Amino acid sequence: QGASSSSGEQKKTLYERLGGEAAISAVVDDFAQRVLADPRINQKFAKSNAPRLLYFLKQQICAATGGPCKYEGRDMQTAHRNMGITNGEFNALVEDLVATLNKFNVPKPEQDELLGILAPMRSQIVEVQSDATGTPLPADFKPAPPLPEKKIKAGPFPKKNQRKMKARR
Ligand code: HEM
Question: What is the pLDDT of residues 13-41, one digit of tens each?
Fold first, then answer.
């Protein structure tokens, strides 16, 4: 694989190698189920709007892996502020993601590439340097509002004919 660029082959984006929109959507849905069932971290999600979270998570992963999306959510520090997320809880979330990636038979190189994209976000998300898990959500945490129904229905991925449609206007 390492020699592919010198021989002029096109390297597919991680987005394409993961399987594109349908695969990323299915992976995020499975991952979210695991997270919400994981007592090490699910308290943090108690007040949050799930459709909004899934929307932005899919859009962010699509964008970060070279897909056709633009991430329109809040930056990671702002989104996770005042949640008291620990290092141990960040690790637990990564474990849940790896379990999902294994379930979907995502090959190790692609898993490592995705985890490598997410790893630098740790310092923006973790507020408590501790291995503890299952720590409560601070009582004064205020979740972000739900997205408009229309936006959720349209989904986080650009419409396949969006470019054409815009040009005709
Ligand atoms: C690399 C790891 C992570 C990524 C890429 C990520 C990504 C995101 C994204 C894209 C959003 C939506 C932002 C928005 O609403 O504008 C979000 C929100 C949220 N994340 Fe994370 N996250 C990560 C780690 C974690 C961890 C470790 C926890 C808790 C254990 C967590 C808990 C939450 C919660 C509760 C929300 C909703 C916030 C609200 O309702 O205002 N995240 N995250």
Answer: 999 999 999 999 999 999 999 999 999 99
Side chain identity at residue 88, one-letter code: G
Q: Which residues contact 47 (CB under 8 A, 6 or more apart)?
A: 137, 141, 142, 143
Q: Topology of domain 21-140, per CATH?
A: Globin-like (1.10.490)
Angle between helices 108-118 and 87-103 (to 10 degrees): 150
In degrees and rounded to multiples of 5, residue 107 shows phi and psi of -60, 155
Beta strand residue intervals within the chain, DSSP E: none
Ligand 1 in contact with 79 (CB < 6 A)?
yes
Test site for ligand 1: of 80, 87, 93, most ligand atoms within 8 A of the Cβ: 80
